[in-house]
Amino acid sequence: MRRLTPYLLALPSWMWLAIFLVVPMVAMASVSLQTGNAYDGYAMTFSFSNYGEALGRYSTQLLRSLLYGGLATVAMLLIGYPVAYWIAFRGGDRKSMYLFLLLLPFFVSFVLRTISWNFLLADNGILFGTLKGWGLLPESFHVLATTLAVVGGLTYNFLPFMILPVYVALERVDPRVVEAAQDLYATRAGAFRRVVLPLSLPGVFAGVLMTFVPATADPINAQILGGTGNTMIGNNIQTEYLVNLNYPTASALSFTLMAVLLVGIFAYARALGTENVLEAAAR
Amino acid sequence: MTSGERGRLGDRLLHAYTWLVIVWLSAPIAVMILFGFNDKQSKSNTSWQGFTLRWYAELFEISDLTVALRNSLVIALVSTVITVVLGTMLGLSLGRHRFRGKGVTNFLVFAAISTPELVMGASLLSLFVSGNVPRDANTIIVSHVLFSLSFVVVTVRARIVTLDPSLEEAARDLGATAWGTFRQVTLPSIMPAVMAGAMLSFALSIDDYVVTSFVNGSTVTFPLWIVGAVKTGIPPQVNVMGTLIFCVGVLIAVANAVVARRRA
Amino acid sequence: MNPPLRGPLTGRTRRDVFRLAGYSAAGLALAACGVQGQKVAPPKADAVQDFWAKQTKNGKVVFANWPEYMPEDKGPLERFKKDTGIAYEYKEVIQENADFFGKADPVLRAGQSLGYDIVVMTNGVQLQHMLQLGYAVPLDHTRLPNFQANAGQKFKERSYDPGNKYTIPYASGVTGIAYNTDHVEEEITSIEALFDPRYKGRVGMMNDAQEIGNFGMFAVGVDPETSTEADWKKAGEKLKAQRDAGLVRKYYDQGYIDAVAKGDVWVTMAWSGDVFQRQLAGEPVAFVVPEEGGTIWTDNMLIPKGAANPLDALMLMDYLYQPAVAAELDEFIQFVTPVPAVQDLFRERAKTAGDKDKKALNDMIDSPLMFPSEADYAKLRTYTTLTTQQEQVFNPIFQSITQA
To answer: Could you tell me the keywords of this UniProt record (chain C) (predicted)?
Structure first.
C-alpha cells in the first residue's frame, strides 16, 4: 500500500494532464512539421525547416521576450520578497488578510485594470500631468508605449504569483530559529543570508517558475502597454495563428518558446542548487 | 541603537512597505470604482461627468452581463475546488515520494505552465471537437483546472519540501492511520500552501480570457462579455460589478482576520 | 504511427514508449482532422435554389452577436417574434473577429454546427476566410425584399462579397483620422498629417494589416480595391519610413481612442463610432475622412454552414432592413446604418420629441459620423480582397512593420 501511495495521489492529475495536455501537445507537434495552407489543407511532410524559418523570422522577438520576462521576474523578486517576508514573520493572525488583499485586484477583469492604468498613466493624466505642471518632468516624458510600461505591466500582473509561493516557504520557518541565528551570526543580515534565504529557496524557485514562464509568453501587456518595437513572441504566435491561419509556424514557434523556457529553467535550477526540488526532472 | 530597536524600525518600515505594495496593486481598482459612479452622457465611460448612483440601481438591467458574471463565479468556484484537490494530491506525491515517472510528471507540470494560452485553448478546442464534446461550462471548467493545476502543485510542493517528514513518521509510529496522519499532521502544515493555491486558481479562472474564448461554446463569462463590449463602450454596470466583487473580497479578508484573532 | 516520431524515445522503457505511442496516434488522428483542406468551388446557382426550396420555417432562430449591439429590451427581435411567430435566442458570444474565427474554424471544418443561425462578423481577413472556406450559406435574394428596397447603394456594392452572395450588412463605420483639438491647431484634411514630422511620436496607427495597409495605399495614391503587389510594397515602404522616423507612437487596437482623447497621441487612424461617442461625452476629438480616401468597414450578418434554421434566419436578416426596425437598432448602436431612410425617420421623430430626446436625435442626424455625406461616401473604399497566395504576400509586408 505505502508503495502505491505516490501513484494513487498522482493518478487523477496524470489522467487530466494526459488527456487534456499530452494529446493536444502531440497533435501540435505534428502540426508544427506540416506544410500547406488553410484552404488546400496541411499535409505531414516532416518539414523541420518550419522551426528554422519561424526562428529566423522571429528571433528578435523571442530574445526580447526572454529579456522582458527576465527583467520583470527580477523586479518581482525584489519587490515581492520583502512583502512575503514581512507577512510570513510579522503578519500574525492577519496573514490571510494580507495575502487576500494582494490578490483581490486580480479578481476583476484585466480589461478594467488596463483601462484604469491607461487613465492613471496618461501623458497628461492625474499623475504625470500634475508632475509636469510642477515642472518636475519634461513635457515629452511618457511611460505608456515604452519598454518600461511593458516590463512594469508584466511585473504588476504576475507579482502575486511571486509573493505567494515565497510566503508559503517562509511561513514554515520558525521565528525562534531566526532569533537563534541572529544571536549566532550577530547581525540580521548574516542570519538572513545563512538561515532564512536558504530555507526560502524552494519558494523562490516556485515563484520564478510561475512568473518568468508565463510572463515571457504573455502577449497582452506588450499589446496594450507597448509602443513600436515592443512586440513579444506571444503576439507573433497570436498573429500567425488567428490572422494568418499559419498553424504550422504558430505551433513551431510555441514549441521553440517552450523548449527555450525549459532549458532556461533547468539551467537556473542548477545555478541555484535546487536540483532537489526538481530532482528527477533534471535527469 | 541596539539591534532590537533597529529590528523594530525595520519591521515598521516593512509593514508600511507591504501596505504600499497593496495600494499599488489596488490603484486601478480605485479608478474602476470611481467610474462606477460616473453620470456619463454617451456610451463611453471615460471622462468624469458627475456623480450618480444610477448604475447601482440598474445593476442587473443588462441581462446577458448578469448571466456572464454568475457563470464566471460558478466556474471559478468549481474549478478552484477541483484544482486544489488534484493539485494538493500531486504536490504531495511529488514533494514527499520518489517514484517512477516522477521526471515525466515534473515535465508535464512545467509544460502546462509554459504552453502559451492561445495554443492551449486552440488545442483543447480541437480535442473537444474531434471527440464531439459539446462546448459549455463543463469544458471551461476542465480547461481552467488544466491551466491552474500546475500553480497549485508548484506552490504545495514548495511547502512540502521544507517540511520535516519525521513528524509524519512519528504519527504513524504512534499508530495513526494514513488518513489520520494526513488529516492531523500533514494537512494542517501544508494548509497555507493549499489556501495560497486556491486563491491563485480562483484569480486565474475568474480573469481568464484567451483559453475560455476557445472552449466556451455559447457560454459567456464576465471577461468575455467585457472584451466584446469594448467595441461599443463598456457600460458602468461592469465597474459596479467589479466594485462589488472587490468589496465582498475585502469583507471576507477582514472577517477572516477577525475570526483568526478571536480564535487566538 | 510514424517512425520518426518514435525516434527520440529509444532510450526509454518499453512501457513509456507504448504510452507515448498511444498518445501520439490519438494526437495525429486529431491533427489530421484538424487541418483538412476545405477549398470549395463556388456554389452553382441551381444548387442554391434547390437548397432554399427545401427549407421550411422552423419557428425559431439563434442569433450570435457582439455585446451591446442590440437594445436591452430586444425591441427589434420582440417585434419580429410578434410579426412572424418565430421565437429567438439572442447570444452575445462574439468578442473579436480573430478569436471567433479561431473558435469556429475547427468546428466547421469537422462538419459540425456552431449552433447559431446568424453570426455577425466584420469584413476583413477572418470574414474572407469564412467565405473562401465555404463556411457561409449562400443567400436567397428572392427572400430579401426589404434589403433590396432599403439598403443604401454603398452597401450593395462591396468588393469582399460581390452581389451580397453570402452576407448583408448589420452596421458600418468609417476608418478615418481623428485628432485632438487641444493639441492640433490646424484643420486636418489630408492623410499627410499622419506623416507630418511636427507630430513626431504623437501619431497613432492601427495594428490590423488591412487597416494600416489601406492607409499606406491612400498615402501613395493607390485605390486599395484595385491595388497590386507593387502597390502594397510601395505602401509598405511609406509606412516603414514613417516608423523609422519615429513618428509612430504605437500600433493600436481599440486603445487608440483613449490615447487621442487624452492627448497621448494627437493624430491617429480612427473608427467613426468611437469618435462620435467621445464627442458626445465632450472630449476634444475631431474626425475627418482624408481627401485621399478612407475605409468603410462593415459588420455583416451571415448564415454559417450547418445552421439549423436557415429560413428563419433569412427572414430575420431581412426584417432588420425595415426602416423602422433599422432606426430602432441604429438609435442604440449609433454606428453607420446600411438603411439611409433612418435619417429621415429620426427627423420625423425629432419634430415631436421632448427636449432631451430631441437633442439626442439632432446630435445623431447632424453627425457625419453616423450619416456620412455623399462626398464622404465617394471617398470611401473597402479593404483589398485577397486570394490565399496574395495574403501570404500582403500580410508579411504590413505585419513586419506593426509587429517588429
So the answer is: Periplasm, Signal, Transport
A154 or C95, greater pLDDT: A154
Is B192 in contact with A167 (Cβ distance < 8 A)?
yes
Specify the DSSP class assigned to residue A37: E
Question: Does C258 contact A243 at a Cβ distance shorter than 8 Å?
Answer: no
In chain A, which residue's Cα lies nearest the Cα of B160?
Answer: A169
**In terms of CA atoms, which chain A residue is nearest residue C394?**
A244
Residue B236: list chain C partners with CB under 8 A.
none
CB nearest to B213's CB, from C99, C276, C279: C99
Q: Which fold has domain C45-172+297-353?
A: D-Maltodextrin-Binding Protein; domain 2 (3.40.190)
pLDDT in tens, chain A (283 residues): 567 888 889 999 999 999 999 998 898 899 999 988 877 788 888 889 999 999 999 999 999 999 999 999 999 999 999 999 999 998 888 898 999 999 999 998 888 898 898 889 999 888 999 999 898 999 889 999 999 999 999 999 999 999 999 999 998 888 888 788 878 876 778 888 888 888 888 899 999 999 999 999 999 899 889 999 999 999 999 999 888 888 999 999 999 999 999 888 878 877 776 544 444 333 2
Which residues of C are less than 8 Å from A34 in CB distance? 31, 35
C-alpha span between C129 and C387 (Å, rounded) = 10
> Would you identify the CATH topology of the domain A59-282?
MetI-like fold (1.10.3720)
CA–CA min distance B38, chain C (Å) = 12
The domain containing residue B157 runs over which residues?
63-234
CA distance B141 to A196: 38
Instruction: Report ipTM for this prediction.
Output: 0.89
B259 found inside a domain = no
Q: Tell whether B253 is covered by a domain.
A: no
Give yes or no on whether C45-172+297-353 and C173-296+377-402 have one common fold. Answer: yes
C105: chain A residues, CB-CB within 8 Å: 38, 245
Domain limits, chain C:
3-29, 45-172+297-353, 173-296+377-402
In a domain, B228, yes or no: yes
Residue A111, chain C, CB below 8 Å: the answer is no
Check C129 against A38: CB less than 8 A apart: yes
Q: Which residues contact C89 (CB under 8 A, 6 or more apart)?
A: C60, C61, C62, C63
Contact residues on chain C for A228, CB-CB shorter than 8 A: 243, 248-251, 404
SS3 B40: coil
Interface check for A221 against chain C (CB to CB < 8 A): the answer is no
Assess if residue B146 is contained within a domain.
yes
Q: Inspect the interface and report whether the beta carbons of B260 and A94 lie closer than 8 Å.
A: yes
Q: Coil, helix or strand for B206?
A: helix
Q: For residue B71, what is the domain's CATH number?
A: 1.10.3720.10
Distance separating alpha carbons of residues C248 and C103, to the nearest angstrom:
33
Count of structural domains within chain B: 1
A226 near C CB under 8 A = yes
Return the residue in C15, C130, C208, C264 with the most chain A beta carbons within 10 A, the one to mutate for interface testing. Answer: C264
Per-residue pLDDT reduced to its tens digit, C178-206:
999 999 999 999 999 999 999 999 999 99
The CATH code of domain C173-296+377-402 reads: 3.40.190.10
| CB nearest to C35's CB, from A18, A34, A242 | A34
Hey, is the C-beta of A61 within 8 angstroms of any chain C C-beta? Answer: yes
Judging contacts by C-beta atoms under 8 Å, the chain A residues touching residue B46 are 115, 119
- Collect all residues of chain B within an 8 Å Cβ-Cβ radius of residue C110: 129-130
Q: Is the model more confident about A183 or about B56?
A: B56
Contact A36 C4 (CB under 8 A): no
